Amino acid sequence: xxxxxxxxxxxxxxxxxxxxxxxxxxxxxxxxxxxxxxxxxxxxxxxxxxxxxxxxxxxxxxxxxxxxxxxxxxxxxxxxxxxxxxxxxxxxxxxxxxxxxxxxxxxxxxxxxxxxxxxxxxxxxxxxxxxxxxxxxxxxxxxxxxxxxxxxxxxxxxxxxxxxxxxxxxxxxxxxxxxxxxxxxxxxxxxxxxxxxxxxxxxxxxxxxxxxxxxxxxxxxxxxxxxxxxxxxxxxxxxxxxxxxxxxxxxxxxxxxxxxxxxxxxxxxxxxxxxxxxxxxxxxxxxxxxxxxxxxxxxxxxxxxxxxxx
Length: 310
Description:
Layout: E1 4-5, E2 13-14, E3 31-33, H1 38-47, H2 50-55, E4 88-92, H3 98-102, E5 103-110, E6 113-121, E7 129-132, E8 138-139, E9 142-143, E10 145-151, E11 163-170, H4 172-177, E12 185-189, H5 197-201, E13 205-206, E14 215-220, E15 233-238, E16 240-241, E17 248-251, E18 262-268, E19 273-279, E20 290-293, H6 298-308
């Protein structure tokens, strides 16, 4: 049985069979060519006007009733939590530091409609790699289009510009069957104004095959109520093993749109720097205060190595 969440809404686990792709003998491609020419890059950049960014919604709001069979979690009131409060179940990040520039919103077109996720700029050989969730690059058998990363997005402001994807990637297991255990994606973005991404915004560290049960911080741009996607939100606490997947869990009230935001080990509140070791992936309806992310093992590492060489 394959568990499949209503991903960006982070609302429910549903067990569905529709939307899975079938692997061929050679296996489906894990890489999608995006805006590779100057003309394509300009078209994608022009597509994402400030108004279109503000109107982009989490994918769950675009799914059909057959795809989304669980009701949304009742919205609460968004909170502001001092970054020195650990653990934190969710609140606006007000601490500044490196995290502000390296975390950003992800925008793309899904089945012809505009949607959003989150992502993190990480250190990489090509200085252009963004790590996110698998469903933030591909869902229901197709890779998303018009994919961009907007670091430090803040209430419509794009202080570091809009970075178009040259290629997007997902793990083989995600591409083949959208297996929740491997909900990991990445993008290589094109240079902007002659500069590479991490030369402009910096890059967070990334690690794989780390010990479970550690203290972690999660970041993202939730856009479903009570949030609106306008600001960076965080959660923090000791993670635990997920019980319906091989992933990790954390107490966190972030909602749809936060998918793909980074989970950090060894995060410093004073500098805003840490080591990415998972991403926001899904929630389950009957425990809305828990967030889950995939364990970063060998397959996530292979994905990262492929992306940073791309």
